[in-house]
C-alpha cells in the first residue's frame, strides 16, 4: 500500500468483471488491512470506514469469487477475527502484481500526459 508522493501521478486500477463483480484499490487495501490486523472492524477503522461498510465489501467479494476471500469468526469468549483465505491471498497478490506491471508499462505515457499539464505550482 505504498502511497505515491503528493506531487507525482498515481495510477488506480479498477477491474470490472462484467456487471457482477469489481476489484479495485479500495477492496485490495481492505484485504491487505484484514491480513495485517486479523479483523474486519480494525481493517475498516484503518481505512476510516464503518464496520458495516467493510463487512458489506467483504460479503460482496466473497460472493463474487468461486471461493471466499475472507474467513471470519464472530467474537465471544475465544474472540473473533478474520483472515484471508488461500484464494484471498491469491487475489490480492494477482491484483498487486497487475498494478505493478501496469504502472511500469504505462510510465512513459503517464509522464507524457504529466508533461502536458498546466503548471499549477501556484495552487491555482
TrEMBL record:
Domain named HTH lysR-type: residues: 30-89
Positions in coiled-coil regions: none
Family annotation (InterPro entries): LysR_HTH_N (IPR000847), Molybdate_resp_trans_reg (IPR051815), WH-like_DNA-bd_sf (IPR036388), WH_DNA-bd_sf (IPR036390)
Designated name of the protein: Winged helix-turn-helix domain-containing protein
Organism of this sequence: Seohaeicola nanhaiensis
Amino acid at each position: 500500500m505504498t502511497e505515491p508522493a503528493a506531487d507525482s501521478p498515481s495510477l488506480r486500477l479498477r477491474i470490472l468483471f462484467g456487471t457482477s463483480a469489481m476489484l479495485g484499490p479500495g477492496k485490495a487495501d481492505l484485504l491487505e488491512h484484514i491480513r495485517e490486523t486479523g479483523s474486519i472492524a480494525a481493517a475498516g477503522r484503518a481505512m476510516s470506514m464503518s464496520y458495516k461498510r467493510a463487512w458489506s465489501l467483504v460479503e460482496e467479494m466473497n460472493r463474487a469469487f468461486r471461493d471466499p476471500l475472507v474467513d471470519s469468526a464472530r467474537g465471544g469468549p475465544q474472540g473473533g477475527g478474520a483472515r484471508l483465505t488461500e484464494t484471498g491471498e491469491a487475489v490480492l497478490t494477482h491484483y498487486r502484481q497487475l498494478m505493478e506491471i501496469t504502472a511500469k508499462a504505462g510510465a512513459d505515457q503517464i509522464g507524457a500526459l504529466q508533461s502536458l499539464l498546466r503548471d499549477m505550482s501556484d495552487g491555482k
